[in-house]
């Protein structure tokens, strides 16, 4: 059940969402976040409208923390049990006129449920249709843990996205836990292990890399026809 608090924040089973002010200059737009729904089947997806940005990653990679850092509020339910969320959680980013400009989709974590080459063998059946067929999906933000070597499940996901011709950006989370030398070494190892030329280092805790990720998201919005 969704409700609105006295402060104007939106609350639902997935958490509370409220006005977002980008005083740090992370985004060129001022947004308000609003929870839409949690989908457990393709027929429950919201009607396609504005460009969508999907967030994907292994369980406990820091996906909820990154979403919270991006929108400046509790925009995703942070679970203490990795792999608990099994739905796609959709929430809209509204401009100052309260018009939707973007939709963020938070996909279930993987890792505890293995990803196979068909991807759907490890995830619920509605995940593959969303990634393969969603017409408004403009960018997949794929999270990897900067403290962990490249994983086979991440390689399989990126190979699948390439095959599906989906635009994606890979971000390395939890960079604040590493020293300068460790960051350089781990990023180089991840690039080699995942066969990538670019990985964006991110820290949800310090905000490092958030501005750069917003630039990537807004570029995808423009490319997908957003205003």
Describe the structure.
This protein has 227 residues and is of the alpha/beta class. The chain has one domain: 3-Layer(aba) Sandwich (Rossmann fold). It is 25% helix and 23% strand. The chain has five helices and ten strands. The strands form two sheets. The protein has a seven-stranded mixed sheet with strand order 4-6-7-5-8-9-10, sandwiched between helices. α3 links the parallel β8 and β9. The longest helix is centred in the C-terminal third of the chain and has 15 residues. It is globular, with a radius of gyration of 17 Å. The relative contact order is 0.16. The N terminus is likely disordered.
Query: Based on DSSP secondary structure assignment, what is the total number of beta strands?
Result: 10
Strand content: 15-25%
The string of secondary-structure elements, in order, is EEEEEHEEHEHEHEH
What is the CA-CA span between the terminal residues? 31 Å
What is the global morphology? globular
Please name the CATH architecture: 3-Layer(aba) Sandwich
Record the strand order, biggest sheet: 4-6-7-5-8-9-10
Rg calculated over all Cα atoms: 17 Å
> What is the overall pLDDT average?
80
User: Based on helices, strands and strand pairing, what is the structural class?
Assistant: alpha/beta
- SS element count, helices: 5
The count of domains is 1
CATH topology: Rossmann fold
CATH superfamily: P-loop containing nucleotide triphosphate hydrolases
- Poorly predicted ranges: 1-25, 78-84
- How helical, in percent, are the residues? 25-40%
């Amino acid at each position: 059940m969704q409700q609105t608090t006295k402060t104007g924040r939106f609350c639902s089973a997935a958490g509370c969402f409220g006005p977002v002010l980008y005083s740090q200059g992370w985004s060129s737009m001022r947004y308000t976040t609003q929870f839409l729904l949690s989908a457990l089947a393709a027929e429950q997806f919201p009607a396609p409208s504005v460009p969508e940005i999907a967030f994907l990653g292994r369980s406990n990679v820091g996906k909820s923390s990154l979403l919270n850092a991006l929108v400046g509020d509790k925009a995703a339910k942070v679970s203490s049990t990795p792999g608990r969320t099994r739905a796609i959680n959709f929430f809209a980013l509204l401009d100052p006129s309260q018009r939707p400009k973007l939709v963020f989709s938070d996909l279930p974590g993987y890792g505890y449920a293995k990803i196979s080459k068909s991807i759907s063998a490890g995830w619920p059946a509605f995940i593959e249709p969303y990634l393969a067929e969603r017409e408004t999906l403009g960018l997949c933000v794929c999270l990897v843990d900067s403290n962990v070597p490249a994983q086979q499940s991440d390689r399989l996901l990126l190979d699948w996205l390439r095959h599906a011709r989906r635009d994606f950006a890979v971000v390395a989370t939890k960079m604040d836990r590493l020293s300068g030398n460790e960051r350089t070494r781990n990023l180089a190892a991840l690039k080699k292990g995942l066969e990538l030329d670019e990985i964006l280092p991110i820290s949800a805790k310090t905000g490092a890399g958030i501005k750069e990720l917003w630039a990537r998201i807004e570029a995808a919005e423009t490319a997908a026809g957003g205003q």
